[in-house]
Amino acid sequence: MRIEKCVDFHASHTKLSCDLAMSSGEVMVHERSTETVSAGAIFASAGGWDIELLPAGAYEVRYVSPRCTIGVALDPQMGVHAIGTDRRQNFRAKVGVVGLIPAGCDVYSSSRYGGEYLRLSAPASLEARIEQGHRQDENFLQLAQELRRWVMLGADALICEAIVEAIVDRLSCSADGEKELAKGWITSRRLRDVEEYIQETLGGPILVSDIAMRLGLSTTFFSRAFKEATGRSPQEHIIQRRLQRACVLMLSTKDSLAAVAAECGFASHSHMSTLFRDRLGLSPSELRGSRPHLAPEAQVMEHRGSPSDKV
After folding, report:
1. Is the separation of the CB atoms in 75 and 103 below 8 Å?
2. What is the pLDDT of residues 283-292, one digit of tens each?
3. Which of 68, 95, 232, 242 lies at 20 to 30 Å from 14 by C-alpha?
4. Which tens digits make up the pLDDT trace of 268-307?
5. To 10 degrees, what angle do helices 208-215 and 219-230 make?
6. Which of 125, 126, 174, 160 has its CA nearest to residue 2?
7. Sign of CA dihedral 238, 140, 40, 61
8. 3 state DSSP class of 121
9. What's the distance, CA 52 to chain centroid?
């Protein structure tokens, strides 16, 4: 996962961030250029998506949106804007408003009180999936806050990809027929092939979009088919395989925890520790010293409990 923390107020490239939402029947937009508020901004990428997390700060920008974007207000937003027109009007947006700006849309916005917000820029191949307009869904804010958490932690792209996919799935205009086609697509043989690929590449960066591309499928279709067959998302499956391998290495070798994390494909030792606490309820060092008579796989299953999606 590419993580870039921008601390230069005069970045050589311009990043634009947008939020579009409806409140009391009025369109609201929030956007910002890092040329004016780049201090503390964090940029990341996952599965072809560009992720931008920008802190609160005053801004004034005008631009033509180069890509379809999804925006989530993490703080209240207020200022002046004009969307697809030269007519400017005041706006006020509440925390959690979510919206979309299509590629090619002319945008002006300024604010003395711009709040923190999250912006996702869609790959060109996925723009057709997203219905333009506004949305208001309490789950959006929860997903956005979870994505913010992992971007701030500098986690690998796998978890961020899962959260972005969950956001996009709620905005998707995919037909119900595609959901039906996904049922039963994962046969035993296909599942074995996927499992073999995951095991072979577990030590490196794995994205679900890469697995789907290898099979000639969209990420959404593959994720639905995989969950239909296994009961959990492919991201969660990969994480569990990493945790299992890490347990084996920690209990059968004297390798340092940092070396174990690297060999199992975790972004860092701290990233592995976070997932151990989230999934197993204890730290790697605690697991290494606990009940060594149990097989590593048994410890994972014992601490994990019933399989469920965490992202």
Report:
1. no
2. 998 888 875 5
3. 95
4. 888 899 999 988 898 998 888 875 544 444 445 444 443 3
5. 100
6. 160
7. positive
8. strand
9. 11
Pull the structure tokens for residue 116.
């923190």
Closest by Cα among 99, 120, 116, 123 to 43? 120
**Beta strand 77-83 with 89-93: parallel, antiparallel or unpaired?**
antiparallel
32 contact partners, CB below 8 Å, separation of at least 6: 16, 17, 54, 57, 59, 61, 109, 114, 117
Q: In the chain, what are the domains?
A: 2-137 (2.60.120.10), 240-311 (1.10.10.60)
Separation of alpha carbons 279 and 110, rounded Å = 42
The widest CA-to-CA distance across the chain, in whole angstroms, is 72
What is the distance between the alpha carbons of residues 144 and 152, in angstroms, rounded to a whole number? 12
What φ, ψ does residue 86 adopt, rounded to 5°?
Answer: -90, -5
Instruction: Give kind and range of the element (H or E) at residue 79.
Output: strand 77-83
CA distance 188 to 95: 45
From the number of C-beta atoms within 10 Å of its C-beta (0-12, 13-18, 19+), residue 199 rates as exposed
Task: Spell out the long-range contacts of 34-39 with Cβ–Cβ below 8 A and sequence spacing 24 or more.
Answer: 34/6, 35/9, 35/10, 35/11, 36/9, 36/60, 36/61, 37/114, 38/6, 38/7, 38/8, 38/9, 38/10, 38/11, 39/6, 39/7, 39/9
Q: In whole angstroms, give the CA distance from residue 182 to residue 33.
A: 40
